[in-house]
Amino acid sequence: MRKLVINGGKPLTGEVTISGAKNSTVALIPAAILASEPVVLEGVPDIQDVAALIEILSDFNVHTTFEEGVLTIDPTNMLSIPMPSGKIQSMRASYYFMGATLAKFGEGVVGLPGGCFLGPRPIDQHIKGFKALGADVRNEMGAIYLSTNGQGLTGTRIYMDVVSVGATINVLLAAVRAKGKTIIENAAREPEIIDVVNLLNKMGANIKGAGTSVIRIEGVDELHGCRHTIIPDRIEAGTYLSIAAAVGEGVTVKNVIFEHIEGLLAKMEEMGVKMTIGEEDIYVAPSKDLKAVSIKTLPYPGFATDLQQPITPLLMKATGEAKIIDTIYPKRVNHIPELNRMGALGRVENDVISITGPTPLTGCEVAASDLRAGAALVIAGLMAQGTTKISNIEHILRGYSHIVENLQQLGADIQMIEED
Ligand code: EPU
C-alpha cells in the first residue's frame, strides 16, 4: 500500500504551477468521443482519474496517446460496448459516458458511478434529463441501461430541480446531437461547464449560454475533431494557496484564473492572508495573526465545496472559532476526526463544522477518506511538528498531479513509500 510520509514544520518557498482542471478533464474526455475524428486535449493532468478514463476508452476501442499533458483521443473506430461493471465504477465521472454513448449510439449501459463518498450522491437529475430527451432509462443490477429505441433524441425544455454540475454536463452531452433545440434551465454555472461547452462548440456543436443558468443547445448532425486547452484547476490552485498561507514563507501559485476562486480569495483576505494577485498568478506572503471566519459552500460562484476541506487546516492556525457549513455535501466532514487525531479542536454538530484555533498540530498516522479530505491531511502534515503518515492516498492521487514533486520543490519533506 502506498503512503505519504511528511516531516512537518518546514517553511515552503518558491513557485508551483497548477495543472489542467480535473473536473473539466473528466468531462472533456467522454465529450471527445462524440467526434468522428481525433480530438486533442492539451494541459491534461497526470492523475489516476485520467489513467482510468484512458483504460475505459480502450475498452470502447477508442485509441489514445498521452504524452507531456497532451491527450489525443481517436474515436473513429469506437464500438458500442455495454459497461455494466468494472473500471467504469471506479470513478464518479464515468457517468458522463451515459450522455455521451446515448448521443453517439442511441444506447449505452454504464455501471453506477463510484468516486468519493461525500454522503448521498443521487443521479436523478441526469436520468430526468435523458428521459425528457426521449430515452428509455432503466436501473438494473447496479447499472443504468439507456436507449432511444432507434428513434434518436429530441430537444426539449429541462428544468433541473437542483443545481448539478454532473447533470448539466451529462444532459448537454446527450442533447448536442438531438433533433431540434434543448433548453436546460437552472443549469450549473461552474467554469468546468464553460470549458466543456467550449470544446463541444469547437467540435461543431451549437450551444449558447454556458456560464449562465439557462443553456440553449441546437442539435447538430455531426461533430468533428479539434484541439482544446483545458482551464487551470481552481481546486488545485485553492489547495496550494491554502498550503502557502499555512506554511509558506513566500509562495507563488502560477497558472491561476483568480476569477474562478473569488469565494476562496475573499475568505482568505478576511482571515488576514496577504496576497498579491497578478494576471495569471497569486503570490502569498508569509501569514501570521490570522482570524477565524465562517464559510458556507454554495454552487458557483459561491465558495466551492471542494475547497472546504483543504481550507480547514488553515483555520486551525487562525484565532477564534471558525464555522463551516457545506450546503452541497453536508456530510463531507470525514477529515475532522483525522485532523483531531493530530491535535485539532474540530467538532461536527448538526452538519456544522466548528474549528477552534489556533492549535498546534502533531504528526501521527491518519487515513484519507476521500480526495479533498486527503488534501486537508497533507496540509495538516506540512503544518504539524513531527512525522505524519497518510494511508489511502489513492484518493489523493486520483486528483492531484505530481503532488509529492510539487511540494518537494517548494521545500517540503514529503515522500511516497510502499508499506503494508
Ligand atoms: N444532486 C442531486 N441529484 C442529481 C445530481 C446531484 O440531488 O442528479 C445533488 C448532489 O447530491 C449535491 C448537489 O446536487 O448535493 C451538487 O452535486 P453535483 O451534481 O453538482 O456534483 P457532481 O457533478 O457529482 C461535481 C464534482 C465534485 C464537486 C461537485 C460540486 C466532478 C467529477 N465532480 O460532482 O468534485 O464536489 O461537482 O461542485 O466534476 C472533487 O473534485 O473532489 C469532487 C467531489
From TrEMBL:
Protein's UniProt keywords contain Repressor: no
Subcellular location(s) of the protein: Cytoplasm
GO biological process: cell division; cell wall organization; peptidoglycan biosynthetic process; regulation of cell shape; UDP-N-acetylgalactosamine biosynthetic process
A molecular function (GO) term: UDP-N-acetylglucosamine 1-carboxyvinyltransferase activity
Keywords in alphabetical order: Cell cycle, Cell division, Cell shape, Cell wall biogenesis/degradation, Cytoplasm, Peptidoglycan synthesis, Pyruvate, Transferase
Positions where 2-(S-cysteinyl)pyruvic acid O-phosphothioketal occurs in the chain: C116
Pathway the protein contributes to: Cell wall biogenesis; peptidoglycan biosynthesis
Positions with a binding annotation for UDP-N-acetyl-alpha-D-glucosamine: R92, R121, P122, I123, D124, Q125, D306, I328
Entry annotation: catalytic residues: C116 (proton donor)
Lineage: superkingdom: Bacteria
Gene Ontology terms: cellular component: cytoplasm
Entry-linked PANTHER family: UDP-N-ACETYLGLUCOSAMINE 1-CARBOXYVINYLTRANSFERASE, UDP-N-ACETYLGLUCOSAMINE 1-CARBOXYVINYLTRANSFERASE 2
Family (UniProt): Belongs to the EPSP synthase family. MurA subfamily.
UniProt name for this protein: UDP-N-acetylglucosamine 1-carboxyvinyltransferase
Organism: Granulicatella elegans ATCC 700633
Record lineage: Bacteria, Bacillati, Bacillota, Bacilli, Lactobacillales
Chain's gene name: murA
